[in-house]
Amino acid sequence: MASLPPLKRKKQEAGCETSKKRPPSHVGHTARSSYRDELPIAQGKPEIIRELQRNSVTILVGETGSGKSTQIPQYILEAGISRGKCIAITQPRRVGATSLAARVATERGVPLGTSVGYSIRFDENYCPSTKIKFITDGMLVRELISDALLSHYGVIIIDEAHERTLRTDVLLASLKRILQRRNGLPLGHDQPTNPLKVVIMSATLDARRFSDFFGGAELIYVKGRQYAVRIFHTPAGQPDFVEAALRTFFQIHTSNSAGDVLIFLPGQEEIENLLSSINFYARQLPQGVMPVLVYPMYSSLHPSQQSKVFEPTPYGSRKCILATNIAETSITIPGIKYVIDTGKCKEKRYVAKEASSGVDTLLTRDISRSSAMQRAGRAGREGEGFCFRVYPMHAFDSMVPALEPEICRCDLTAVILELKCLGLDVEGHDFMDDPDEEAVHSGLTTLSILGAIDKHQNLTDAGRKMAELPVDPKFARTILASGELGCSKEVIDVVSAFSVSSRLFLGTPSNDSAAVDAREKFKHPSGDHCTILNAFRAYQEVVSSASSGATKSWCAANSLNERALSEAMEIRRQLRKICGRIGINTDISCGSQVQPILRCLVLGLVQNTAFVQPNGLYKQVMGSSVMKIHPGSVVQMSHPAIVYNELVLTTQMYARGVSVISKAEVSSVFSHISHKF
Ligand SMILES: Nc1ncnc2c1ncn2[C@@H]1O[C@H](COP(=O)(O)OP(=O)(O)OP(=O)(O)O)[C@@H](O)[C@H]1O
């Protein structure tokens, strides 16, 4: 498809400051309105607008790439359906929210952050007069806490609803209640004063179920996609799907036809393996075969690295993106003509445990049919596309239609706390599918232990403050404790550094001597929390005194991930701001003392404490799980007691983010909370 001419920027819109951020790299090219008119959805525009005007709730199903996410919010705005109020469009993933906002801002010829903006955790770019806001579902749930009726939105669009993330399900249930409140007739009025419209969208939706959930909501099907995607299957199953993807890639590459390639793999490990194999074989190719630029894309990669995939491919080379399912829905990656689908994903499952906190497992499994269709839909967005599935047709046919909703398989602690803030109980909430009972029980136990709810399960003042902090409730409790124990300065830093999306230390100590040296340099005898604190503090000093080039080389010399550290700085800024708002003095320091920091950690992570056993393994104090310390930890010798951030189950159970504590510390915290379980 030919590149479109650049758009003229409109004059800055009233009430909005121009975005100070760098122009987004998500938008491959600009788009004039005639381009918008060519999208399949445009043919049904008058009808869609009529239906949206008529109904409170509309379920809209349309093929991948037909124009739902970029066009529907604009139709709503242009037809005045939102009555001058803001339109929220939820996205399950951060990259979807930011890239769609960038695209729509470009289509409308406005700077991002003015009339079109986005809001994702720890990053927002919108202003009071924003009219179209792309927002992650988790952030919209957070907005519910301060505005239970979401009253400043005229229309709320739940996009990619088929993914049934935990927060999407919370929103769907909340919207049902909000619709009753906002669309009912107040006494003495013959019209609602602030009605709300809800649109549920997806390409692969069990539309009837959603319609029934909303009492028989109107369904609209949008036919057609802009460009065809031809789908191929292997004749037989491929036991080594990574190798099969590698072969398929080089068949495409050596055929010399133009177009970039997107390969779907289950996780980071497979991505890193395939990345080095492609680079290795690409170097062996004869001269004349075009060079390959390989980019990884997974959720723990820093957002700025993720956004590299949207940059235009240099002339005469081929881009190959290796992605997990984070690239499966919502996004358009310019240049992608071929998709290779291994048919595998990682599924997160929470195993709830009595009294102790449960364990998150992340296991590889076959994808659903809905995912396979979404993956194919990433091709054919700018021209004809191809999808090579490295599994046979019968394997596709026997896939489950959709994965189990997250509400039936995830940790519910944070959601229960969020609902408590809305005055709601998870048990009485009208969800599309009932939450897992054990996870509800385990979440309530955790909140009671943390002091977020009292013995009648009512929200406490502490619980309300914890809900304000956009981190895991256990870390929120740790921060709250730091205000009382005089170490908020240190604890906020520790929590910020552990809340980043990627690892702070580069390399693995088992096979990288530079990584070992770096850890040694910052190592604190108490363990990972104060080691991370040392590294983060050292970085803060360098940032305040050195140029950005010097900071970069300092990070490289110390095997530290500069992007993760700068993300930690941003999280720190936001946490300090929220702490100030909820009455925690952020500048009290415990100086060189470590004890108060460890005490706060035990208060927040008391369910994550363990005592050493005669066989050298650790056993939970409040549960029965037995674990080893993760090899990436600086704590390697045996100690009587530890506190850890999380348990991960791979080949065995590992505790990650570990510090050494005394048994007496654990006992003293226990004596405070023993009546709660
Ligand atoms: N960043 C972008 N760069 C180039 N083209 C884009 C971009 N974003 C969207 N498009 C174009 O707009 C079309 C519609 O995209 P949109 O995201 O609205 O579709 P959709 O129906 O929501 O798809 P999906 O169900 O896959 O999320 C794409 O097929 C593509 O042609």
How much of the residues is beta strand, in percent? 15-25%
Tell me which ligands are bound.
adenosine-5'-triphosphate
Strand order of the largest sheet: 4-3-5-2-6-7-1-8
Mean pLDDT: 89
Low-confidence stretches: 1-15, 17-30
Percentage of residues assigned to helices:
25-40%
Class by helix and strand content?
Answer: alpha/beta
Q: Using DSSP, what is the number of strands?
A: 21
Main pleated sheet: 8 strands, mixed
Number of helices: 24
Gyration radius over CA: 26 Å
From the spread of the alpha carbons, the general shape counts as globular
How many individual domains? 4
Distance between the termini: 64 Å
Domain Helicase C-terminal: 245-423
Region (Disordered): 1-40
Keywords: ATP-binding, Helicase, Hydrolase, Nucleotide-binding
InterPro entries: AAA+_ATPase, AAA_22, DEAD-box_helicase_OB_fold, DNA/RNA_helicase_DEAH_CS, HA2_WH, Helicase-assoc_dom, Helicase_ATP-bd, Helicase_C-like
Structure report:
The chain is of the alpha/beta class and 677 residues long. It has four domains: 8-12 and 226-407, Rossmann fold (3-Layer(aba) Sandwich), CATH 3.40.50; 19-222, Rossmann fold (3-Layer(aba) Sandwich); 414-458; 469-673, no CATH class. Helix content is 39%, strand content 18%. It has 24 helices and 21 strands. The strands form three sheets. An eight-stranded mixed β-sheet has the order 4-3-5-2-6-7-1-8, with helices on both faces. A six-stranded parallel β-sheet has the order 9-16-13-10-12-11, with helices on both faces. Helix 9 packs parallel to helix 10, helix 17 (473-485) packs antiparallel against helix 23 and helix 18 (488-498) packs across helix 20 (528-545). The longest helix is centred in the last third of the chain and has 20 residues, at 562-581. 49% of the residues are buried. Bound molecules: adenosine-5'-triphosphate. Adenosine-5'-triphosphate binds at residues 26-28, 39, 62, 64-71, 99, 103, 203, 226, 329-330, 332, 334, 377, 381-382.
